[in-house]
Design brief:
The protein is of the alpha+beta class. It folds into 2 domains: about 240 residues, Sandwich (Jelly Rolls); about 80 residues, Jelly Rolls (Sandwich), CATH 2.60.120.10. Helix content is about 20%, strand content about 30%. The chain contains 10 helices and 20 strands. Strands 1, 13, 14, 15, 16, 17, 18, 19 and 20 form a 9-stranded antiparallel sheet that branches. Strands 2-3-10-5-8-12 form a 6-stranded antiparallel sheet. A 3-stranded antiparallel sheet has the order 7-6-9. The longest helix has 10 residues.
Length: about 350
């Protein structure tokens, strides 16, 4: 069970982006309507049975390969807790334009209304941030009444809606947790590694000017009255927003060569480690996705041999590869599901 080098997996979406992913991977000019690369995905686009799933180099669909040998890919403890689902979706996301204001349902909402144990809490690790003032927008600054929000959405008062959110300037290395329910948008020119729960559940609060039929596709088939009940309408103070964010120099050292980049509130949903080996960093056995941000090096695993690494590489590391070591002059993000315990 060797680590698996993954090719790009970029379904078309309704907003622009994609060239930053192509530059990162070194694959050419890129498709400007493919702003997301679903890395090691066993998750499908909402309403579709196949789109979004990753295909392995041997031609097998990853979801099917995991189903055939879940303990080898995920580990026995993970399978006991989450079954055959990796409990994680990793994306490269290139915001070629500001994304619309939207939010995602919580686990409780998803269980009640969507027959799914997962919601869509997510987190962004900022890789590039272009422009004079690259921004992400997150959380209402003040409490918003139910009828007020419904009116903004129905009338598409997008300037008011965006202006009601906190605007956070970001730079490479920053990490931001986005709890389920919290309205948000990524600004133009921001390129991220996104970790999220393994669903494609989104409720669009803004759609004017985007190539999407939100009245058909923006409410998860629930209708807007019910869908908007998943929105966290509470006002976030500056301190509350700050607790969702960790700056580039604030990562917590876990062990030699590895730092935790997300705030602790992310742990029930996913984990992210920044790997700066120099000379090496050790890895415990775990299903994980590696995204190499810069430099060159290699991955060695006890049962999976060696794999060269370079900027733009994305690698699925199965549990059965065993303990590992990353060496060389490189910078990488290791994305993991929540701990099974």
């Amino acid at each position: 069970m060797r680590p698996i080098l993954l090719e790009a997996n970029q379904p078309h979406r309704f907003y622009r982006g994609g060239p930053a992913i192509a530059r990162f991977r070194g694959t050419g000019p890129g498709d400007e309507q493919a702003p997301e690369d679903w890395v090691g995905s066993a998750t499908t686009i909402f309403g579709d049975e196949r789109q979004g799933l990753s295909t392995l180099p041997d031609g097998h669909v990853l979801r099917d390969a995991i189903a055939a040998d879940p303990e080898a890919f995920l580990g026995a403890a993970h399978v006991e807790r989450y079954g055959q689902d990796p409990a994680l979706l990793v994306k490269l996301l290139d915001a070629g334009q500001r994304l619309p204001v939207h939010c995602h349902p919580s686990r409780a909402f998803s269980r009640r209304h969507l027959d799914c144990p997962f919601g869509k809490t997510e987190a962004w690790v900022i890789i590039e941030a272009e422009g004079e003032r690259p921004l992400v927008h997150l959380g209402f600054r003040e409490d918003v009444e139910t009828a007020t929000l419904a009116g903004w959405v129905e009338r598409q008062e997008t300037t008011t809606l965006l202006g009601a959110l906190h605007a956070l300037e970001v730079r490479p290395g920053d990490a931001v947790l986005v709890p389920a329910g919290v309205p948000h948008a990524i600004g133009e020119g921001v390129f991220v590694v996104e970790l999220q729960e393994p669903t494609d559940f989104s409720v669009l609060l803004e759609w004017d000017g985007f190539a999407v039929d939100a009245l058909a596709d923006g409410h998860l088939g629930l209708g807007y009255e019910l869908a908007l009940s998943c929105v966290d309408r509470s006002g976030f103070g500056e301190e509350a927003v700050a607790r969702l964010r960790r700056g580039a120099g604030e990562a917590r050292e876990l062990r030699r060569g590895a730092w935790s980049v997300l705030v602790v509130d992310a742990d029930p949903y996913f984990r992210a480690e920044r790997l700066l080996p120099r000379p090496n960093a050790t890895l415990e056995p775990a299903f994980s996705i590696l995204v190499v941000l810069d430099g060159k090096g290699r991955l060695e695993t006890e049962h999976g041999g060696e794999l060269p690494l370079a900027r733009g590489a994305t690698v699925l590391v199965p549990y059965a590869s065993g303990p590992g070591r990353i060496s060389g002059e490189l910078d990488a993000i290791r994305c993991l599901p929540p701990a099974a315990g």
